[in-house]
Write a structure and sequence with these properties.
Layout lengths: L2 H9 L21 H9 L5 H10 L6 H12 L15 H9 L7 H13 L1 H19 L5 H9 L4 H12 L1 H9 L5 H17 L5 H11 L1
Amino acid sequence: MDGKTVRRNTQAASAEDLLTEVDRRGSELDVHTEYLAQRWQEGCTNVARLATELRARGYRGAGRNVRRLLQTWRAGATPLATTPTSTFKARQVTGWIIRPAVKRTEREQTCLKEILERCETLRTVDDLVSDFAGMLRQRQGQHLDGWIGRAQASGVQQLQGFAAGLLKDYDAVRNGLTLIWSSGAVEGAVGRLKSIKLQMYGRANFDLLRRRVLLSF
């Protein structure tokens, strides 16, 4: 038994002290509970219909989660007045910011707009991330100096650190954002070789490994 476990057991004053509280994990359905509550109050209680409406709004979770929530409302266990307000996970917001606007759903676009209106720092992050992605996709390396200056003056520590890292390898970064050539093909080949090596490790000799590598290209 681990020493920390032994110490925790010996120092516990009661059995309750040994119980570990587990925080409730967010659900993708949390973003849509406010809309569900509104539709419920309007008289729509059909699970299949509501699940279809949620998927049109960007919900990608399981339909059974919608059914479970509505069952609690039918039983009166969770009054609609106490339905939690819409919350967003950091990973969700990060995905919306990184993803191009044309690839966001209408729901995602609306949610991101609401979040950005609440936080000036996130607006700065959104602008800088979008501009850097544009430089990357359209090979506009001539704008790199201006972007680095804006990132350094943004006041966002993570972006300032990223900009400092770009300066350390400035020539390579500018070339990568400007020229059509890259080491992507080479890196892909290296990744494939490493994958094969890991699969064959401890199972065959070098001759068989070499043969498989040659046949894979």
